[in-house]
């Protein structure tokens, strides 16, 4: 039995002696909290306290059982109802069961004993329902995260554990990560798995709103607040009432708007542009940025007080290139998703294509991978997806290696690596084109300085 929560039993009964016995008998169970009512109206007035079980005398002075039961069912459809009658009338019993009562008991010397047993069984049923609903929530949560966000790497599993924590409270969340790493996806996942999931999820990309419209977009405006404000407008902050407000690219916000945002967050109320009424706010805030906000503060582009006001639980999304084999896992996921949606045959990646995907740095992260895969499926002529179907610009990757080169050997290796990739890892062809000995290339491969 749940130690925290007692089972509330309400008994409506006009026979005072019987009701005393009833209360005494049921209260012998320490998990039952029993209250007695002598009229139907007294009971109806107390239904807001949501009793779990109600015993009903069928002949009450102010209302008959058949009139009372639908009124209770309307307010508390899940409550368990036990009808207690002075006579054994099969037809009445049948009509009571049709109304959805749990049991129909006739008053005799064993009634108290039977009520006790029925209440006991009903209480067990309530407990079981509660356990199931708790379990369902846990199972759904685990299921949902993986339904929304794909990945198996240690890095993404760390992100999953952070999301699990963020879901259990209303704390501000700050999500950082390069473009396309899934910041919006993570914010949505938190919202739809939190206790705010039935309320609004309002996402605002601060960078995408023209500078002069940011205030009215976020905070709303009154009619006539400025030229062109023909109608009153509710801002995104108000729209998010009771739900989640996701402010993406917060680092792009202009300093004057930052000042207003700070005030609004401190007071959790706002004045629409051109208005003079304080409107209370209620939302959970999730923000995202691809910038290092601390650095932005140092450089004077972001208010320090706002930075501290926004700080909350932080979730850092690693770039795709640091998620190991997730690149291939996600590639397969996107192949299946796109092929199913477009009713085309699901193709596999050939070995060279896999190698190329693992080597490519994906500056656009998961978004870029998705686009590369979808184009490859459409453009490819073969049964499998080949390296040549993947439209990735290896020159960008080369730049990265090239820039980090410090010795002549580093430059040589970077050039050979790039040429090998262009020539589908054909060592002989690459050696000929670069006029170096193929043994040089093999040596670098053996030393692990060049990867194919
Ligand atoms: N782990 C993942 N599993 C499945 N899809 C993903 C995953 N990560 C990202 N995506 C998909 O990649 C695309 C980009 O993700 P999203 O918009 O969330 O990135 P972002 O970090 O918010 O990007 P930006 O910084 O440009 O706003 C979306 O289509 C998203 O559904």
TrEMBL record:
<dbReference type="GO" id="GO:0005524">
    <property type="term" value="F:ATP binding"/>
</dbReference>
<dbReference type="Pfam" id="PF00158">
    <property type="entry name" value="Sigma54_activat"/>
</dbReference>
<dbReference type="InterPro" id="IPR011006">
    <property type="entry name" value="CheY-like_superfamily"/>
</dbReference>
<dbReference type="InterPro" id="IPR003593">
    <property type="entry name" value="AAA+_ATPase"/>
</dbReference>
<dbReference type="InterPro" id="IPR027417">
    <property type="entry name" value="P-loop_NTPase"/>
</dbReference>
<dbReference type="InterPro" id="IPR058031">
    <property type="entry name" value="AAA_lid_NorR"/>
</dbReference>
<keyword id="KW-0804">Transcription</keyword>
<keyword id="KW-0597">Phosphoprotein</keyword>
<dbReference type="GO" id="GO:0000160">
    <property type="term" value="P:phosphorelay signal transduction system"/>
</dbReference>
<protein>
    <submittedName>
        <fullName>Regulator</fullName>
    </submittedName>
</protein>
<dbReference type="InterPro" id="IPR002078">
    <property type="entry name" value="Sigma_54_int"/>
</dbReference>
<feature type="modified residue" description="4-aspartylphosphate">
    <location>
        <position position="57"/>
    </location>
</feature>
<dbReference type="InterPro" id="IPR025944">
    <property type="entry name" value="Sigma_54_int_dom_CS"/>
</dbReference>
<dbReference type="InterPro" id="IPR001789">
    <property type="entry name" value="Sig_transdc_resp-reg_receiver"/>
</dbReference>
<dbReference type="InterPro" id="IPR009057">
    <property type="entry name" value="Homeodomain-like_sf"/>
</dbReference>
<feature type="domain" description="Response regulatory">
    <location>
        <begin position="8"/>
        <end position="122"/>
    </location>
</feature>
<keyword id="KW-0067">ATP-binding</keyword>
<keyword id="KW-0805">Transcription regulation</keyword>
<keyword id="KW-0547">Nucleotide-binding</keyword>
<dbReference type="GO" id="GO:0006355">
    <property type="term" value="P:regulation of DNA-templated transcription"/>
</dbReference>
<dbReference type="InterPro" id="IPR025662">
    <property type="entry name" value="Sigma_54_int_dom_ATP-bd_1"/>
</dbReference>
<dbReference type="Pfam" id="PF25601">
    <property type="entry name" value="AAA_lid_14"/>
</dbReference>
<feature type="domain" description="Sigma-54 factor interaction">
    <location>
        <begin position="149"/>
        <end position="378"/>
    </location>
</feature>
<dbReference type="Pfam" id="PF00072">
    <property type="entry name" value="Response_reg"/>
</dbReference>
């Amino acid at each position: 039995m749940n130690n925290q929560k007692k089972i509330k039993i309400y008994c409506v009964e006009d026979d005072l002696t019987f009701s005393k016995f009833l209360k005494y008998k049921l209260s012998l169970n320490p998990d039952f909290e029993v209250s007695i009512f002598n009229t139907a109206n007294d009971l109806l007035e107390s239904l807001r306290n949501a009793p779990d079980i109600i015993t009903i005398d069928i002949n009450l002075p102010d209302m008959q059982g058949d009139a009372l039961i639908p009124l209770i069912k309307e307010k508390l459809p899940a409550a368990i109802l036990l009808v207690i009658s002075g006579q054994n009338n099969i037809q009445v019993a049948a009509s009571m069961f049709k109304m959805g009562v749990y049991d129909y008991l006739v008053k005799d010397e064993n009634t108290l004993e039977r009520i006790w047993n029925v209440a006991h069984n009903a209480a067990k049923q309530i407990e079981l329902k509660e356990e199931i609903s708790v379990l369902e929530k846990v199972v759904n949560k685990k299921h949902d995260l993986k339904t929304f966000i794909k990945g198996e790497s240690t890095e993404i599993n760390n992100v999953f554990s952070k999301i699990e924590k963020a879901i259990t409270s209303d704390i501000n969340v700050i999500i950082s990560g390069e473009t396309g790493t899934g910041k919006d996806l993570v914010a949505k996942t938190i919202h739809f798995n939190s206790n705010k999931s039935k309320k609004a999820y309002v996402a605002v990309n601060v960078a995408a709103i023209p500078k002069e419209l940011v205030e009215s977009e976020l905070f709303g405006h009154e009619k006539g607040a400025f030229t062109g404000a023909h109608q009153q407008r509710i801002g995104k902050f108000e729209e998010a009432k009771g739900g989640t407000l996701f402010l993406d690219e917060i680092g792009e916000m202009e300093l004057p708007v930052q000042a207003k945002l700070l005030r609004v967050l401190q007071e959790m109320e706002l004045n629409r542009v051109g208005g003079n009424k304080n409107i209370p706010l209620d939302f959970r805030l999730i923000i995202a940025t691809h910038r290092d906000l601390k650095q932005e503060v140092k450089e004077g582009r972001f208010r320090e007080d706002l930075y501290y006001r926004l700080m909350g639980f932080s979730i850092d999304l690693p770039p795709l290139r640091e998620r190991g084999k997730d690149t291939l896992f996600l590639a397969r996921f996107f192949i299946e998703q796109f092929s199913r949606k477009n009713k085309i045959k699901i193709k596999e990646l050939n070995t060279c294509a896999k190698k190329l995907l693992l080597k490519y740095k994906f500056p656009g992260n998961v978004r870029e991978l998705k686009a590369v895969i979808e184009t490859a499926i459409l453009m490819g002529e073969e049964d499998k997806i080949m390296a040549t179907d993947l439209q990735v610009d290896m020159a960008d990757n080369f730049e990265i290696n090239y820039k980090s080169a410090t010795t002549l050997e580093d430059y040589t290796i970077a050039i050979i690596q790039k040429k090998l990739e262009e020539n589908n890892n054909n060592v002989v062809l690459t050696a000929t084109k670069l006029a170096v000995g193929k043994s040089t290339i093999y040596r670098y491969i053996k030393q692990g300085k060049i990867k194919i």
